[in-house]
Design a protein that fits this description.
CATH topology: Sufe protein. Chain: A
InterPro entries: Fe-S_metab-assoc_dom
Largest sheet: 3 strands, antiparallel
Family: Belongs to the SufE family.
Oligomer: single chain
Number of domains: 1
Radius of gyration: 15 Å
Amino acid sequence: MPKGERLFMASLDQIIDDFVFLDDWEDRYRYVIELGKALPELAEEKRTPENKVMGCASQVWLVTHTSGDPENPIMSFEGDSDAHIVRGLVAIVLATYSGKPASEIAALDAFEIFSKIGLVENLSSQRSNGLRSMVKRIREEAKVRAAA
């Protein structure tokens, strides 16, 4: 299996373990870029204004899919960005939230996890704000769907 595919398929636990193992920020930065390279490209027809995440300096798109119980659906996400490091951040956000019930997503504070692994403090303020915008959008969607 190509290295990039393994990275994309990595669970959040694997990403956390890899971050802990990589104690140098430069190595972590390269790892985030590798995660982004492994992220499947979002189809052009999904790069719409409705899917664009506001508050990101780079262009970021998130697409939400739901399945299962309409009162607490399982949510999965597709995403993409026009910037390498941000694509990696998208991959981490997707690993954090995809495949979980809406109620769990709404309650999950990804920034607690991101801080624990040393991700947030090493990002520029623009990237950190963009990451917050992605997380906020996903959690808000989950709150609406969990309440439906």
